[in-house]
Amino acid sequence: MHDPLFQPWNIGQLSIRNRIFMPAMHMNMCRNFEVTDQIVDFYRERAFGGAGLISVGYATVDELSGTPLNIGAHSDAFVPGLARLAAAIHEGGALATVQLNHAGRYNASFFLGGKKPVAPSPVPSRLTRETPREMTREEIDATVTRFADAAVRVKEAGFDLVEILAGTGYLISSFLSPFTNQRDDEYGGSLENRMRFGIEVIKAVKERLAGACPILVRINGNDYMQGGIGSKDMQAFAVALVEAGVDALCVNVGWHEAQVPQIVTKVPRGVFAYMARDIREKVDVPVIASHRINDPATARRLISLGYCDAVAIGRALITDPEFPEKAQRGEEDQIVHCIACGQGCFDNIFKMRPVECVCNPKAGYEKERKIELSDSPCRVMVAGGGAAGISAALAAAERGHRVSLIESSMRLGGQLHLAGAPPGRNEFLVYANDLKSKLSASGVEIVLNTSVDRALLDEQRPDELIVATGGKPVTPQIAGVEQDHVVQAWDILSGKYQAGRRVVVVGGGAVGVETALKLAEEGTLSGEELKFLLVNQAEDPAELVRLATEGGREIVMVEMQEKVGTNFGKTTRWGMLQDVARHRVQALAAAKVLEITATGVCVEVEGNKREIPADTVVLAVGTASEYSLKADAVELGIRVRTVGDASQPGTVFEACHQGFLAGRGI
Asked: Both 66 and 156 in a single domain?
């Protein structure tokens, strides 16, 4: 059967084995710009997993263009490391490219020894909260030359293509945007002038390469910035790039400062591909679509419909390096999908840590966490079928142990089902299903609707016990908490309880925010309803926005800390708080709950006491570990390990990684 995803295609004279392109991503795996074993091992595995073309980077073109955690391409001293990386990718059968970039106003003086970052104009950056200095004409010329110098190094190192990043708010796109380019010389003003710097970079690179390898450019389809570039100007820029000699375009979306979510879970799969289609209709070179393409079906659909010639699949290959191979073999039920949570990838960038992955504890640790068969297989019992328990069972089974997983309910996945209940968080449900599919294929004995207790332990006497029994919601010591209209957030998220019209959510952490948003979303227009009314022009667009965000409930979220949502990662928090405001959830921070009455909640804020009316009071104040089984195992002389919330309440990331390490450690 003809599979559009696995047809060869060309960029220039290069033939690529399939339509899967792994785009460059910040990995934070370099040290002082030097390629490390960690990044070589990481990309080697993705090449062997079947990707057709892999881009690494971005890589720096001069000392102001990046951080020491980036790949260096601004000196000949970095060529040997680059060559080692290219060889590793080629070893796996993929073609390789390096993305060259200058961060411009997105760099920080912290990384530059106190020097100011540079930009076309001194426009403050909301990302770094710094104001760059304006580049001189001499600096512009020098930077163009340095792009070309770096491109030659990339070719000398053995890479097959050179990629230039001309979007996302970095230097080239900041020249292109009237928001950040306020110059009055030949590099500012008209669109032609604002395109000049990017076009000069391409022409310089092309001249220096002298046809030795093709040039790929990554651009935005729209920057989503007020006063910014916009889609029409970006299309004109795409045409100009091709006229300047570019051999292929990869189309992404949005600047880092943009207020439109681009990479998080609630972004629909493949939603931004229309921008690639619009550009593809105007150019005669291959076009690659990007963003939230994390399953073969979406990728095939976009290629088949002519939106693009190939698809950029990035974080999905962090999660599952074998994604391409599994899809080609017809084993798509064994793919572990990226859930776009950002916890291990983008959040780690802000922490200046190497990229990791919630769903793949081996990512970034390809050698350190490689699993080998045990010399002495034993009987392992895992108590609990949530994320931690399943991760533990899979790792132990991969070691060759005889593993049984025992779950007290009739459903595997544990709290992933709660995490996937709020609007836009359904990818967590996909992950629960992925774990279930992997477990079914692993040879692990699965026992449902059975609780592990002392009697069962005494009867079966496993050699090792992994306690992954999770936790239970905390009930705070508040007067009136025992009343019938007081429920736990878990009951709302699981659908066990229907809230009234006026709701007070006690607790403004992640669970509180997600529960408030789930309640606020109920009663709003669904996507299908919204499309029907929009296409038929039944209402004014502004009215449709109101109907899509107002559900009729009055929701107040009460939090003791100074801010709400503090335990979200940086990647996710801003969007969640944006939704809190958009859905008119009142967030009451630095507030203490004094009492729950029959009609509301008494709170104290800044020394003032008042009662908030409520038909339903929802408790979202935390989780308590459930680990009583550990004591029974110790008394019976069974070796025991505790993981996930049973060890200490934490995130999905912590649960999965702890479970994996426990299973691997047996």
From this structure: yes
d(CA 66, CA 128): 13
* 3-state SS, residue 612: strand
Residue 134 CA to residue 139 CA, distance in Å, equals: 10
pLDDT tens, position by position, 518-560: 999 998 999 999 999 999 999 999 999 999 999 989 999 999 9
**Helix and strand element counts for the chain (H, E):** 22, 28
Q: What is the pLDDT of residues 347-406, one digit of tens each?
A: 998 889 999 999 999 999 999 999 999 999 999 999 999 999 999 999 999 999 999 999
SS3 letters for 112-126?
A: HCCCCCEECCCCCCC
User: Would strands 14-16 and 9-11 be described as parallel, antiparallel, or unpaired?
Assistant: antiparallel
Q: Clarify whether residues 607 and 654 are in a common domain.
A: no
Q: Which amino acid is at 243?
A: E
Residue 141 CB neighbours (<10 A): 13
pTM greater than the 0.90 cutoff: yes
CA–CA distances in Å: residue 308 to residues 39, 281, 290: 29, 10, 10
Tally the domains of the chain.
3
| Residues 608 and 573 both lie in one domain | yes
Q: pLDDT of 652-665, one tens digit each?
A: 999 999 999 999 99
207: left (phi over 0), alpha (psi -120 to 50) or beta: alpha
**If we measure between CA atoms, which residue out of 445, 359, 436 comes closest to residue 396?**
445
